[in-house]
Amino acid sequence: MKFSLVKLSALAATVLLATTVASCSGPGTPAAQTTPQTTSSAPELSGTLNVFAAASLQQTFTDLGTQFQAAHPKVKVSFNFDGSSTLVTQITQGAPADVFASADTANMKKLSDAQLVAGTPVNFATNVLTLVVPASNPANITSFADAAKPGIKLVVCAAQVPCGAAAKSDAASAGLTLTPVSEELSVTSVLGKVTSGEADAGLVYVTDAKSAGTKVKTIPLGLAKPTINEYPIATVSSSKQQDLAKAFIALVTAKEGQKVLADAGFGAP
């Protein structure tokens, strides 16, 4: 009887040991494989992004730049706003641009023809012209035709600038011959001459008229088919910040960017 109890005790100990081992390590699964594996995240964007953008984009792109920097704290966005043709000249002469946003497709094509555009430009907005006069309207202008009358100090953009090409096209559509006293290289310069009282009237984009608020009075051109300027954006091929450029363009073309542009008066692409 004593011998049988010893055998039973040994057998119970063996069973207990086997059960303990099985509970610590699943069937056919080495213990080392139960350790969770870590995954590496994408590197955080950093550096300075140089954006060359049409003057009419100053307000909206400044707002978008603030959003972009908030999302990427290690990034600084530097803007150069001017007439699209001036910006093209600067880039082709070696200015360090990462992104180019034009107020028309013609100037973007100039940059593409110079092989300075990476990939395919994307249209992200549209714009049209309107007539603005000082808030007091001293020349008593009430129509587009009034701006073409002798003695009226009209200011427009130069022909090589997108707003100048659109002004020429809109005047032709209206059957008018414009005799401006000044031709400016950016739409903001035209607006400035009107708000300062140097001009009786000026042709600017509807977005610029909206941003001027009560400083000007807006007079629609009244055209059945106004000239519509398309705004394309692209990465500059010589950029050393290609990832930053692509990320900023993605913001401009995404829902958030499109809302900022629409709120400023831009049309959809």
β-sheet strand percentage:
15-25%
Backbone shape: elongated
Q: Kindly report the average pLDDT value.
A: 89
Distance between the termini: 97 Å
* Name of the CATH homologous superfamily of the largest domain: Periplasmic binding protein-like II
Q: Which second-level CATH architecture of the largest domain applies?
A: 3-Layer(aba) Sandwich
DSSP E strands, number: 10
Question: Looking across the biggest beta sheet, what order are the strands in?
Answer: 2-1-3-10-4
Q: What is the count of distinct domains?
A: 2
The CATH class name of the largest domain reads Alpha Beta
State the CATH topology of the largest domain: D-Maltodextrin-Binding Protein, domain 2
Structural class, from secondary structure content? alpha/beta
Unreliable sequence segments: 1-40
The amount of helix comes to 40-55%
H/E series, N to C?
HEHEHEHEEHEHEHEHEEHH
Number of helices: 10
Task: Determine Rg (CA atoms, Å).
Answer: 32 Å
Largest sheet data: 5 strands, mixed
